[in-house]
Amino acid sequence: MSAETRIGLALGGGGARGMAHILVCEAFDELGIKPALIAGTSIGAIIGAGYAAGFSGKEMRDSSCAFYANRREVLARLWRVRPVGFTDLLRRRSLTPQFDANLILETFVPGYDLLPETFEQLAIPLKVVATDFYAWTEAVMTHGPLKPAIAASIAIPAVFRPVEMDGRVMIDGGACNPLPFDNIAECDVSVACDVAGGPADMSGSSPGLLECVVGAAQISMQSVIREKLKWHQPDVLVRPDINGVFILDFLKTQEILENNVAFKDDLKRRLDHAINTPFELPDASAPGAEEGAQQFGRGSLTQAGINLWRMVAGGGGKEPDAVVDPAGLGVGGTVIEPADAGEGDRGRA
Question: pTM for the full model?
Fold first, then answer.
């Protein structure tokens, strides 16, 4: 890998499922590489901020597993930060049952107090994705106060109160960009981790209210991701095994990480292949090379026809079938077909 190769990392939204992002950070660490740019939505913004601040994947694993292993303490903290209490009734405060996103982050994210106050203080550039509610569009934050931006990115409707920033009302970034790989397109190699998941019929019974609300949101996110992939693809797209993990199942953090050991090993192999691929763009001195570089973009594997985004890791340990696509590559090569984006999780959503 050239020292000038810039690697971008996009971490998607998905609640507790996103604890699997820690494994992606560990894969980078174990390969001895660091992303030049990170983009995160919702839980991806939390993990991305920790990684951008200098925490290693192992440090985030150790602190998260230790914290969420103490079920009694987690539940006690949840009781203390509940949105409606007896004092609220006495003081005639609003009884809207929505949590304060800032307070939740301070209470339930280990090491959150150690994060820098601004984007500019991060070791790695970070893009935090939220949704501007009244502008009906994505809001990408890259400078200024860091923690309010993360709070805005995780503000899932009905669970958290919207976050106001610079006169704008922000909600969860997953509403418009659940997997922000388009925000790292400027990098030479782009890696994206999708943890959105989707509903699946396991019990045979009709889904309840909460399952319907969450499932509808997941279907919407998958639709957004699917449409985005039609126009632009990351070089490596991975989907960990997050079957049976509900969006609020943070108490399953250790289980999520332990169940994805094979996923991390596979990701390392595929990431190493993507970064150290032997395929090169034409020599700048060769006839027509300058025109080709302008057309495809220098160093862009995807735009050069090398569709490494199709190397999808995960999927319950089943190795995807490989197909040869010489026409797409321009040379002989192997492309791994992705899992069907419409295929729902086999566990509870």
Answer: 0.77
